[in-house]
Design goal:
This protein is α+β, with helices and mostly antiparallel strands and 174 residues long. Helices cover 34% and strands 14% of the residues. Bound molecules: FE2/S2 (inorganic) cluster (2 copies).
Length: 174
C-alpha cells in the first residue's frame, strides 16, 4: 500500500491504496464520489469518465498513482451551486433513460464544448462516439449539447430543437 495524494474537484485527497488501483475505484470506494460509473471496466464504454488535463479520461483503466493533475468528476462540474450548462441542458432535454451511461455522456459533452463551443451535428457525433448508451439516448444527447452550446453562447433554445441535419438523420433521410 502507498499513500497517494490526488487533487479531486479542487481538494487534495490522500488515500492509502495499491499504486495500480484503478482511479475509478479510488474515486468511488475511497472518496465516495458516485458520479463515475463502473460499466465495462475495460476502457470501452466511457461510463467511468472524468476530466484530467481537459481530456475525458477513462478512470477504470487509469492507475491512480499515474495521475498528477487535477481530476474533475461529475460532482465537480457544478460551480457555486449552479449546474454546469451541460448538466442543466441534460435536465431540460430529459436525456437519461436508465441513466447508467450518463456520467460519461455529460463529462464527454463538457469536454467537447470546452474544445469546440459550437460543434456541428457531425462533430458532436464524432466527439461523443466513445460514450456508449444501451438505451439509445443519442438524439437527446445531441439536442442537449446543442442547447448547452446555445446557453454558453447566450442564445435561447427550445426543447428538442434539433438542427436540420439532425432531423434528417432521425428521419432516416440522407
Ligand atoms: S467502465 Fe470505464 S470505459 Fe467502461
Ligand atoms: S441511459 Fe441507459 S445506458 Fe444510457
Amino acid at each position: 500500500m502507498s499513500r497517494i495524494t490526488l487533487r479531486v474537484n479542487g481538494t487534495a485527497q490522500t488515500v492509502d491504496v495499491e499504486p495500480l488501483t484503478p482511479l475509478l475505484y479510488v474515486l468511488r470506494n475511497d472518496l465516495g464520489l458516485q458520479g463515475p460509473r463502473f460499466g465495462c471496466g475495460l476502457g470501452q464504454c466511457g461510463a467511468c469518465a472524468v476530466i484530467i488535463n481537459g481530456v475525458a479520461t477513462r478512470s477504470c483503466v487509469t492507475p491512480c498513482s499515474t495521475v498528477r493533475s487535477e481530476i474533475t468528476t461529475l460532482e465537480g462540474l457544478a460551480s457555486n451551486g449552479t449546474l454546469h450548462p451541460v448538466q442543466q441542458a441534460w435536465i431540460d432535454e430529459q436525456v437519461p433513460q436508465c441513466g447508467f451511461c450518463q456520467n460519461g455522456q455529460i463529462i464527454t459533452a463538457a469536454v467537447l464544448l470546452d474544445r469546440n463551443p459550437n460543434p456541428s451535428d457531425t462533430q458532436i457525433r464524432e466527439g461523443m462516439a466513445g460514450a456508449l448508451c444501451r438505451c439509445m439516448t443519442y438524439y437527446r444527447v445531441q439536442a442537449a449539447i446543442k442547447r448547452a452550446a446555445a446557453t454558453m453562447a447566450g442564445l435561447p433554445r427550445k426543447s428538442g430543437d434539433l438542427s436540420a441535419e439532425a432531423r434528417s438523420a432521425k428521419a432516416g433521410v440522407a
